[in-house]
TrEMBL record:
GO terms for molecular function: steroid dehydrogenase activity, acting on the CH-CH group of donors. Pfam families: FAD_binding_2 (PF00890). GO terms for biological process: steroid metabolic process. Gene3D superfamilies: FAD/NAD(P)-binding domain, Succinate dehydrogenase/fumarate reductase flavoprotein, catalytic domain. Residues 21-467 form the FAD-dependent oxidoreductase 2 FAD-binding domain. InterPro entries: FAD-dep_OxRdtase_2_FAD-bd, FAD-oxidoreductase_2, FAD/NAD-bd_sf, Succ_DH/fumarate_Rdtase_cat_sf. It comes from the Bacteria. Its cofactor is FAD. Keywords: FAD, Flavoprotein, Oxidoreductase. This is FAD-dependent oxidoreductase.
Length: 488
C-alpha cells in the first residue's frame, strides 16, 4: 500500500493522539541511539516502530560497528591505531564522493563512541579473529571488516582491524548474529532513561506548522489514522529504500531485484516524507554489494571475469569484490580453485553457509576454459601468470598477500558466480553533522532530523562492514541530542 507523504498542516489537527518532546520513527540502531541520548538530555521521548518489536535490520545483522582511532578493544588486542590513520583509510575506502568532513568528524569521535556503547552495556570480548570470513565464528570482538590489510588499502594506511563485534554465544551465521547483542542493551538503556515506544505504527507523513517547522507525524496503527505531536523535534530512522522497487529502479537500478542484508520495512517512506518538504538527497545511487561465496574459498582461488582475466585481489573485503563484480564486470565472475584448495576451504571454521561446490571440474586449465566457454587461451594465460608469481611468493598484478599465494594445480574447478551478488542502498537524506535534515536550499528544515540509512552517512561509492551500524548509532546519538534541544 502506497501512503500519501504530502505534509499535513498542523492547523488541521483538531486533537493530538500522542505527544512527546522528541518523536522517533524507527527502533533500529539509529532510533535506539537517538532515544538514549534524547532521554538522557531530559527529553520526553516516544519511539514509533512499524513492526511488533524493536530491532530493525540491526538486530538481524552481524553486529559489526566500524570504530577505530585507538579504542580500548583495539589496544587490548594489541593494535595501535590513530584518528589520522583511520581517516586516511575511510577517505579512500568509502569511495568517490565520500564526505571528508563527515569522515573526520566520525573518526575524531570514534573512541568516545566505543566507550559510549560499552557504557550502555554492549559487551565486547578482547579477542582478535584473524581468519577470512563474513563475521567471527565465535565470540571474538575484533576483525578486519573492510579490506584494510589488503591492496590497495594497505599501501595507503597502516592496516588495523576496526570491525568491533558485540560478544554473543551460540551464534548461527545468517540466523542469529551479534546484531541482537548490540540492540538489546541500547533499547534497555533507552527504556531505563525513560523512553517510551509504540509498536505496529506505520508513519505516513510529516505535520508542519505555518512557519514550516516540523511539529509531528501522522501515522497509521491497526488501520486507523493517528497524529503524534513532537514538541522539540522529529527523528527519522526507518532505514533505507532497498525494498521500495520504484525508488531502487529510479536511483540504484543495478541492484533492482536483488536486495540483501536488509529488511522489507526499508521502503524509503521516511525519505519520501522529507522529500515532500523539499529535503535534499545524497548518494542515492550508491550501494553495498555482497558476493555470495565464503571468503575462505575466495582467498584460496583466483577470481576471473568473462574474459578470463583477474580484476581484484581475492583476499580483499568481499563487499569490494561484490561491487567490482556487479558494476565493472557485468555481474560475471568465476572462481578458479583446485582440489586441494577447495578441501582446505571446506575444512575451515566457516559454517558452510556460503560454501559453493565447483560448477565445472577438469584435469587441465585448457579443458576448464572450454567448459566455461571462455576465449581460447585466455584463462590459460591468466593461470600461467598467476602460478609463475605464486611460485615466487608474489602477485605483481594485484598484490594478493603472500600467505594465500599457491600455484593452482589439478584437478581444477570453477565456481560460477554469475548473478551471485545482492546489496542494499546507501543513499538518503542529506544532513548536517548534527543530523539536521537539509532543504534543497541548503538550510536545515526546522524540527527535522535523520540518521541511519534514512540519511546519507559515511559511505558513498565504497563500504566496509560496520559502517551502517557505526554511523547509524553515532549520528543517531547526534539526532537525539539535537532534537531534544541539547545540541544548541
Amino acid at each position: 500500500m502506497t501512503l500519501d507523504v504530502t505534509p499535513m498542516p498542523a492547523g488541521s489537527v483538531t486533537a493530538w493522539d500522542h505527544e512527546a518532546d522528541v518523536v522517533i520513527a524507527g527502533y533500529g540502531i539509529a532510533g535506539a541511539a537517538a532515544a538514549v541520548e534524547a532521554s538522557r538530555a531530559g527529553a520526553d521521548v516516544l519511539v514509533l516502530e512499524r513492526t511488533g518489536s524493536w530491532g530493525g535490520a540491526a538486530a538481524m545483522a552481524g553486529g559489526f560497528v566500524y570504530l577505530g582511532g585507538g579504542t580500548a578493544l583495539q589496544k587490548a588486542c594489541g593494535f595501535d591505531d590513530s584518528v589520522e590513520n583511520m581517516a586516511a583509510f575511510l577517505n579512500v575506502a568509502m569511495g568517490p564522493g565520500a564526505d571528508e568532513e563527515r569522515i573526520a568528524d566520525y573518526c575524531a569521535g570514534s573512541v568516545a563512541h566505543y566507550d559510549w556503547l560499552v557504557d550502555c552495556g554492549v559487551p565486547f570480548k578482547a579477542e582478535f579473529f584473524a581468519e577470512p570470513g563474513w563475521e567471527p565464528m565465535g565470540e571474538q570482538g575484533l576483525m578486519y571488516s573492510g579490506g584494510e590489510n589488503s591492496y590497495p588499502f594497505n599501501s595507503i594506511a597502516a592496516p588495523v582491524p576496526r570491525g568491533h563485534v558485540p560478544q554473543m554465544s551460540d551464534k548461527k551465521q545468517g540466523e542469529a548474529s551479534a546484531g541482537y547483542m548490540l540492540m538489546k542493551p541500547l533499547v534497555e538503556t533507552a527504556e531505563a532513561a525513560g523512553a517510551r515506544a509504540l509498536y505496529d505504527v506505520r508513519v505516513q507523513c510529516l505535520i508542519v506548522d505555518s512557519d514550516g517547522r516540523v511539529v509531528g507525524l501522522r501515522a497509521r496503527r491497526y488501520g486507523a489514522d493517528m497524529t503524534v505531536r513532537a514538541r522539540t523535534g522529529v527523528v527519522l530512522a526507518t532505514g533505507s529504500f532497498a525494498y521500495n522497487d520504484s525508488m531502487v529502479a529510479r536511483y540504484a537500478p543495478r541492484i533492482a531485484g536483488r536486495p540483501a542484508a536488509s529488511v522489507e520495512q526499508h521502503d524509503g517512506q521516511a525519505i519520501q516524507m522529507a522529500q515532500a518538504l523539499g529535503a535534499d538527497l545524497a548518494h542515492m545511487d550508491a550501494t553495498e554489494v555482497a558476493i555470495f561465496i565464503d571468503p575462505q574459498q575466495l582467498v584460496r582461488g583466483i577470481l576471473v571475469n568473462g574474459r578470463g582475466q583477474r580484476y581484484v585481489p581475492e583476499d580483499t573485503y568481499p563487499g569490494r569484490v561484490g561491487q567490482l563484480t556487479l558494476y565493472h564486470q557485468d555481474n560475471t565472475a568465476y572462481l578458479i580453485i583446485d582440489g586441494d584448495a577447495q578441501e582446505e576451504a571446506m575444512a575451515s571454521l566457516s559454517p558452510q553457509l556460503m560454501m559453493r561446490p565447483p560448477t565445472w571440474v577438469c584435469e587441465t586449465v585448457a579443458e576448464l576454459e572450454a567448459e566455461i566457454g571462455l576465449a581460447p587461451g585466455s584463462l590459460q594465460a591468466t593461470v600461467a601468470a598467476y602460478n609463475k608469481g605464486a611460485a615466487l611468493g608474489e602477485d605483481p598484478l594485484l598484490h594478493k598477500k603472500p600467505q594465500w599465494l599457491r600455484p593452482i594445480g589439478s584437478p581444477v574447478g570453477a565456481i560460477d558466480l554469475r548473478e551471485s551478488t545482492g546489496g542494499f542502498t546507501l543513499g538518503g537524506l542529506r544532513t548536517t553533522l548534527d543530523a539536521e535534515v537539509l532543504h534543497v536550499n541548503g538550510k536545515p528544515i526546522a524540527g527535522l532530523f535523520a540518521a541511519g540509512r534514512s540519511a546519507a552517512g559515511l559511505a558513498a561509492w565504497g563500504y566496509a562492514s560496520g559502517i551502517s551500524l557505526g554511523d547509524g548509532s553515532f549520528y543517531g546519538r547526534r539526532a537525539g541530542r539535537a532534537a531534544s534541544g541539547a545540541a544548541k
